[in-house]
Amino acid sequence: MSDEILLEVKNLRAKVEDKEILKGINLTIRPGEVHAIMGPNGSGKSTFSSVLAGNPAFTVTDGSATLHGVDLLSLSPEDRSHEGLFLSFQYPVEIPGVSMVNFMRAAVNAKRQYFHEPPMSASDFLKLMRQKRAVVELDNKLASRSVNEGFSGGEKKRNEIFQMAVLEPRLAILDETDSGLDIDALRIVAGGVNKLKTDRNATIVITHYQRLLDYIKPDFVHVLYKGRIVRTGGPELALELEERGYDWIKEEEDAKLNQES
């Protein structure tokens, strides 16, 4: 683990329309770490990932978020990506008519342009594609088709980890990437994530269930409830949640809120 801070979130608050969803999130992530964020439905997990990625549906009302010292909240979504933020969607979209090869080459060269680097040649890019496909066992036929068009749920998730492999982000956010996956697809996707882990990058895994964390081992587990991180622990916290559910946390936190009010 490193003393360097990769992501620092302080008192982050955000709303959609007039409803406040995030109510003061604080989180520090260092290179080499894996953080799991868990919590009941409606607690703000996907909102948190969307806000970090720059989804315009959400309005930040307070707080800050920096990625390796860069003010994330001042950047466009595409510039956040260029700076090293990657979000794997819970429900990846299909993009008919756009081949995976063209889509990924455009993404790679946009990032290179952002850093004033020359575009990657076609031959070098195809070599990169072959190397990264092997990481997630992605069939060449899938890589040649339109983005996610006609893919199964597992193929879409595997395709996203392939995109992550190509882009080599500093911080990857996996938003319920285990939803809808059978055990074989889960193993392959998680294996790809593990292969991509280095001492320079970090991962946030957003999940409801322990089963993904059997494959992607977290260093820290955070429980999000009503827009705040209310518990932080090690992997044992996820096991406790698996055994006891979330009701005990809801009861304790609601009791605290009642006392405060």
Please mark out the parts with pLDDT under 50 across 5 or more consecutive residues, or reply none.
Answer: none
How much of the polypeptide forms β-strand, as a percent range?
Answer: 25-35%
Main sheet properties: 6 strands, mixed
Overall strand count: 12
Provide the structure class.
alpha/beta
Helix content: 40-55%
Describe the structure.
This protein is α/β, with parallel strands linked by helices. The protein is built from 10 helices and 12 strands. It has helices at residues 45-53, 77-82, 100-114, 122-135, 140-144, 153-167, 183-196, 210-213, 235-244, 247-260; strands at 7-16, 19-29, 34-38, 59-67, 70-71, 85-88, 95-99, 146-147, 171-175, 202-206, 220-225, 228-233. The strands form 3 sheets. Strands 6-9-10-3-11-12 form a 6-stranded mixed beta sheet, with helices on both faces. The chain has a 4-stranded antiparallel beta sheet with strand order 2-1-4-5, covered by helices on one side. A hairpin with a 2-residue loop joins strand 1 (7-16) and strand 2. The termini are far apart. 36% of the residues are buried.
Would you summarize the structure shown here?
The chain is α/β, with parallel strands linked by helices and 261 residues long. It contains ten helices and twelve strands.
Sum up the structure in keywords.
4-stranded antiparallel beta sheet, globular, 261 residues, 6-stranded mixed beta sheet
